[in-house]
Amino acid sequence: MSGGQRSRARAVWFFLGLILLTAASIGFWWVTAPSPREGALARIERDGVIRVGYAVEAPYAFLDARGELTGEEIELARIVVKGLGIPRIEWRQTEFESLLSQLEAGRFDVIVAGMYITPERARRARFSEPTFHVRQALLVRAGNPHRLHAYEDVRKDARLRIAAVAGSIEESMILGAGVPEAQILLVPDALTGRVAVESGLAAGLALSSPTIHFMARRHALGVTEVAEPFTPPARTGGRLEGFGAVAFRSADGDLCGAWNRQLKEFVGSEAHRRLMAQFGFTEGELPSGATTAEILSSGAR
């Protein structure tokens, strides 16, 4: 074989080796890379971790005296995740109004924040079956100097403002009660709202009844109190309201289905009742058999 022939032969073998190496690399990637069709549950089970988004609002999610994350929704999530056999939870805190957008962006797999089931939110996320059913309440300065007993009472004086957590169902209910936007003060969390009431920046703070009653039990009302009596907004068109649930990305039906199977075994049980009582919920705040489908279809025209 001449020198030229040997050079051509070496070049051929080099390119053949390069092709084989590339093919092997592609094959390795094909075997190990996640399938684009892999469901959320399969990925979570493979990785052994689920990312849970939450916003701070007692009694749903908050830090206890030791600085440990707890709350009715937090502890329920821990029970469900354990039942699913997932070893680790990665908690991710954000403001309430950012929860849905960050879920859609893939920052976490599930929202655990005492979020109410509404048709508007259901267009952006998939809800589990409900885990609680609560009414609204109003936090006012001690003595209720402005005599507020309903959201619409704020309209009587254009100088008054009512606070609500941004993105909360209470915000939309206040608007639905005819309160002008100029009289609504949006706050990032319940604590900020309470301070607004204490300082006189707001005449009242709209929250769920468990949140306010939990604050009262913890002697965390400061110079505020629960407005008594309080008339909650009338239901709109027969719609079922005040039912809370966990939210998932719309495409993650596999994860939602597995979560619901765990809830079915636990919600309404004696252990669940004890858990709710621990955080100030009453027997009347159990979901009472209503399904998410019924809640979303109620009041439909």
Structure description:
It is a single chain. With 301 residues, this protein is α/β, with parallel strands linked by helices. The chain has three domains: 1-33; 40-133 and 239-297, Periplasmic binding protein-like II (D-Maltodextrin-Binding Protein, domain 2, 3-Layer(aba) Sandwich), CATH 3.40.190; 136-226, D-Maltodextrin-Binding Protein, domain 2 (3-Layer(aba) Sandwich). It has helices at 3-32, 40-47, 72-84, 99-104, 119-122, 169-176, 190-199, 209-217, 253-266, 270-278, 292-297, and strands at 49-54, 62-63, 69-70, 88-93, 110-116, 125-127, 132-133, 136-141, 162-165, 184-187, 204-208, 224-226, 243-249. Strands 1, 4, 5, 6, 7 and 13 form a six-stranded mixed sheet that branches. Helix 3 (72-84) crosses helix 9 (253-266). Mean pLDDT is 86; it is low at 5-36.
Give structural attributes.
11 helices; 301 residues; six-stranded mixed beta sheet; five-stranded mixed beta sheet; 3 domains; 13 strands; alpha/beta; 39% helix; D-Maltodextrin-Binding Protein, domain 2
